[in-house]
Amino acid sequence: MHSGRMQTLMDKTAIAFSTACAIHCLFLPVFVIMLPALTTTSIGDESFHRLLLWFVFPISVLALTQGCRRHKNRTVLSFGVLGLLLLGIPAIVGHEVLGEVGERFVTVLGATVLAFGHVRNYKLCRKNKCRF
Fold first, then answer.
1. Fewer CB near the terminus (10 Å): N or C of the chain?
2. Other Cβ atoms closer than 10 A to 91
3. pTM for this entry
């Protein structure tokens, strides 16, 4: 696969996973009320958040570092690191430390910051015609 397309695919995949994480966090309570059977699935479990991180983390690190290597915009990498840290904190300490609202807030904030970093990375790579 052409490396420019691979970069685009990685950024878009990371944005999709970040968005899925935020949607899961925000709307799971509503879905559980509407469809109580969800509580018996892995989607209704907090481990789903950790599972998404197993995909988000390596894709994000690879996409952002490769992009930054070419376009030299370190702000993109800063947004990525901050977003990953914010996504990781609730997965590690959970609602026992942050509370339900705090966990949701930090997760959604992290997903937003990370997605912003990937959108910026994507735009800079397109503008600079990054080739790997």
1. N
2. 20
3. 0.76
